[in-house]
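User: Hey, quick favor. My workstation is busy. Could you predict this chain's structure for me?
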Amino acid sequence: MAGAGSTVPPVLYLLALPPTDSVIEGYLPAAARLGLDVTLLTDAPEAHRRAYEGRGGDAWPRIDIVPCEVRDFREVIARIAALDRRPEAVFTNSDHLQVQAALTAEWFGLPGKGWRAALLTKNKAQMRRALAEAGLETVWSAELTRPGDAEDVRPPFPSVVKPREGVASEDAELVEDRAELLRHCQDVWSRRPGLPLVVEDYLRGPLHTLETLGDGRALHILGSFHEVDVVPPHFVLRRADLLPAPPRTHVEQVVARLEALGVGFGACHTEFVVQGERVRVIEVNYRSAGDQADLGLAEALGIPLFEHILGTHLGHTLPADLGARRAGRLLRIETVHAERAGALTSAPGPVEWDRDGVRLVYRPQRKIGEEHPLHHSDRDHLGVMRATGPDQDRIGRVVAAFLAAHRWEIV
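Assistant: No problem, here it is.
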């Protein structure tokens, strides 16, 4: 680590797959503000180089992009050990790399998430087992790792089938009967042979999230989103509204489940269904919320959220009060979604609006000319906007005006 009085900036080792808005607009500028150099380990180095072209100055850190097979923790540890700068912190915001980052941090004696908690939250079957063993929550669930499993299993219907370690609602589907279950499993395995799936009871009710931040000692509740428009059978996110304050009973139940899973370090984004006074966890994503929600949350709360998150991985203790603004600014996340396969021929680039007391930021998720199949997942997003303002009615009017003023065309 950099010693006292050292003129060499401490280095953050950042593990990443493709570039994301959270990293580009959140974590990398925060690293610069914290005075960190960044060594980015990735299996997509060219994509990151293109994403960072033209960026620089005081708001951007010094970045070395290093090719690495980041899904293999052994390669990550070996790559870092071979470089000439010892890490001050190891961090990732990728769902797929939390275990690798946790093991690497532990190897180098650095603060980080426990690798067991990272594995429990990533593996949906293991999460269900752990919550049941803790006596907190029982949801009918079974793993499907081969065609015979799908033939033999007897789930309650309707059920949800999804990848055991999936993200972004990819290949998640509501199935109403055995024929639909077998059809969906066959479809997924024809495209992704050997992919472990889970089938579990469909939990009905309003879908909410809890956004938390901890340093291993204290856990801060940042906020809760109501995911307004997530429609089965594919559960693709269309809109989420930040609630003025999450109900206390919901928070207590979710936090009890996080404690049972060992979650309490850094950022976490937990999705749950509300059934009266009871909550039922859908999944725990041990990272900050995506689709612009973390960026919007930092803006709505008026706090240096990304610096706080990186600070926990640097060994900093979070302040007892983050100074979050609890009233006056609400937030909506809304997506523009492809309804069919094809090539995107017309769409706006990045946009920032300030209208009628509302700040709207839009970021495209697909480039002009790119051709994609219809995934029936969050990968169909053409763009995502975050809008902060004094009330949801005013936010809604500005969002509607933005959508009316722009066109997205697929041929």
